[in-house]
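Researcher: Structure for this, please.
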Amino acid sequence: YIPNVVFSCGNAVKDDTIYVYYGGADTVIGVAILEMKDIKF
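Model: Predicted structure, token format:
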């Protein structure tokens, strides 16, 4: 167990949007949605 950490299971890019899929407590799956314009490189 590591608190406050998200382990992503994969991601997908469509147009300028990134979808990051992750598991939660081995019982659910979630998705975080990021816009490329909001990411600072």
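Researcher: Any notable elements?
Model: The CA atoms of residues 21 and 31 lie 4 Å apart. The chain has a mean pLDDT of 88.
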